[in-house]
Amino acid sequence: MIGEIDVLGVFVPSVLVLMFIAYLVNLAIRTVLARVGFYRLVWHRSIFDLGIYVLVLGLVVIVSHRFKT
User: Fold this and answer.
1) Do 29 and 59 form a contact (C-beta atoms < 8 A)?
2) Reported pTM
3) Which has the closest alpha carbon to 25: 58, 65, 69?
4) pLDDT digits over 15-62, tens only?
5) Residue 50 in contact with residue 69, Cβ under 8 Å?
């Protein structure tokens, strides 16, 4: 996971790319939860969204590490 990725001649940290992927997945999850009406059951939406983002980021890092080897 340590290293950089070349994006159009600009080296960006691999963690930044993984965070962006996790953000996109988290955005899709939040949209689905909002349409279903799940947020009516959640006490503090911002903290819940942060927790989901951390979980998704962890899963993205684990999956990327599995594909690397």
Assistant:
1) no
2) 0.85
3) 58
4) 999 999 999 999 999 999 999 999 999 999 999 999 999 999 999 999
5) no
